Amino acid sequence: MKQRSLWLRAGWFAVATLLIALLGAWLLFGRDRSPIQTDLLAMLPATERNPLAEVAAQRLAHADGDRVIVLVANADDDRAKAAARELGHVLAHDDVFASVTAELPPFDLQQLITPYLAHRFSLLTDADRTALANASYDPAQALAQRVNEPFATGVGTRLQDDPFGWLQHWLDQQPWSRSPLVPEDNLLTAHRDNVSYVLVTATLDGSAYDDAIQRRALHALGDAERTIEHDQPGTRVLRTGALFYAAAARAGAEHDVHLVGLVSTFGIALLLLGVFRSPGPLLLAFLSTAIGVMAATTVSVLIFGQIYLLTLVFGAALLGEAVDYSIQYLSARANAGDAWEPRQGLRQVRPALLLALGTSLLGYALLGLVPFSALRQMACFAMTGMTVACLSVFGLLPALLQGPAKPLSQASVRGALAVQNLVARMASGKRGIALAVVALLLAIPGWWQLRHDDDVHLLISPPAVLSQQERQIRDITGLGNGTQFYLVQGANQEQVLQREEALELRLQQLVDANRLQGWLGLAGMVPSLQRQRADQRLLAPLFTQPDRMRQWLSSAGFRVADIEPFIDAWPGTPLDLQTWLKSPLATPFRYLWMGDAVHDGAASLVLPQGDAPSALLQHAASGLPGVTLVDKPASISALFGRYRHYASIWLLAAIVLIVPVFGWRYGLHNVPRVLAPPVLGIGLALAMLGYLHQPLTLFHWMALMLVLGVGANYAVFLREGEPHVVHRPGAMYASVLLSAITALLSFGLLALSSMPALRDFGLTLLLGIGFTALLVPTSVIHRATSS
């Protein structure tokens, strides 16, 4: 009857596991799009107090999300252009790209001028505005200067349409006029250091974060690049875009998962085989852990709708902790010998497993309090995986482990007993006090050297080659920096443009002082009506007496057929923003207008160009109503700093919360002894991080939270298990060391991760768990037994 009950429980658990497995398989592989999120920006938390600023940051980050930018470079101008044409031709024939632009359709540069002719008297530069306001302004001299100017090779107005050059001066300040890229042979080309650079752009037919799209696009680009480098010797290719960052992140995560998952699996398998001397325990331990990881993946995707790369790598490392529950049950079976009875064994380990699970869940629950979706998902993943792995021990193993097992290997027990006795002797009496003082003195210099660094780039560190190419492309093409921008808000369109102009006045001062490269904003392309009317008022005195204007123009050599149309064009019409936004010329700049995201009022974006410090840009906006500097990396770094500061308080709170639980189980007078190993392990880990000159981040503190939970588990396992193995001293500590080594194999390998955040996480756990495992015998120092 008892055996039937065990099999019935196992059957129910197996059915539930199968259902979870089927649901997980459908979520991961049965839908059109993979739930694996390779967009590293998606992991970042919302940091802006202004919701519109957060929307703007996301819009700007993904403005070119599905676009690939390529620069084809060659010292030979003809080869560079031939290679760019060939690249465009090859890519255009691959359906992974929705569109490819290499050669521009033939067009007359006058097409950039014609839309502005009707508004020419409302568009003045600051220099012309200042000159016209000066009483000494001489129209005849301005005409003579304009007539004798060298012929314009770029976007130039016709002399009869713009005899004073006012519109020409204004056009010279527009983004398309300032860009180093100029149309040559129907290709956008830049020249620098005797090298020609030709721009090719492509838009993906799908998301850059879709795995299938990534692989096809990278394959097509790789083949095309090899072809043009062969056909046009000396050609090299620079490229940037979300595609390459997402693919690099995925490749790094896959490498980490394989490294952590395969190496730790192989290492844990060898350990379990060596200690238990049978493949059965090995398979059951991995079965329990696999069920936990599978359930964790399924629940995470259900709750969050996606799973981050950070979570996948972390999940591979969870193997080392989730296997602890199986190890303790298997150890109880091995230590019981012929007296083994499944129900009795379960009753023996249940208090320790539940107490250990509770302390682990507490640590992960505190991790989930951080308003950072990646950390919350990691916490959810861990809590689900640990809980299900523990329940699988209760539900499956008693039914599957009916008979007795071989005892733990003699070598592992003897080794563990030797270490346990050594620690007991060293930590007892006056010797223990002396060693504690020495350890404190050695730790203090390490603590003293501790520093912190909250830079968000420690979380996301793309390959150096990608960052270098992006900087090169930005430098050559004059593209702006998208991580910092101003959000300009107002009651209506006119107020927004006026506030932009006030901001741009200050930005121009920084440009004049060589502290800023420039900026990109709508008000520079479509001035406010207030400014346009002011410009007309400055020009009005010149047109109030048409005969005088005719005389100036006639004296400068203009024909009557040209003079009359120019005078008749006065005063023209103001340039309207909404009309301009609908024009083809506005296409590259429409994302700067936030009209579709604002329900009450209006807003726009202004992008500073260059690498000006955040403090300087913040000062430029100081005191300007409706103007906010949004610096996403700085905001996230500040948020990480705040939560790093809070994390130390959370760690202390976790210790305080564990005290009554342990006090209820072991008595308050024994709590210091049980908590000493993880607390000392945390202190020594911090000292080592100081000696290693590791700047502390939020992730170091989150790892220390887990050191507390895992270390407390080891103390619980040893204290709960020792009374049951008095016949075989050292056997319980051997199982604790086995659990610690499996955790070190998994979490410790994270120290080799390509993700800086996981490296910090893994190194801290490696140190903390290592020290804790060695100090655990002090929690039962009075029970150590000599061999």
TrEMBL record:
It is found in: Cell membrane. Residues 100-401 form the Membrane transport protein MMPL domain. It comes from the Bacteria. The keyword Flavoprotein does not apply. The chain crosses the membrane at residues 6-29, 257-276, 282-304, 352-375, 381-401, 432-450, 643-662, 674-692, 698-718, 730-755, 761-781. Keywords: Cell membrane, Membrane, Transmembrane, Transmembrane helix. InterPro entries: MMPL_dom, Mycobact_MmpL. It is a multi-pass membrane protein. Pfam families: MMPL. Its main location: membrane. PANTHER family: MEMBRANE PROTEIN MJ1562-RELATED, MEMBRANE PROTEIN YDFJ. This is MMPL family transporter. The lineage of its organism: Bacteria, Pseudomonadati, Pseudomonadota, Gammaproteobacteria, Lysobacterales.
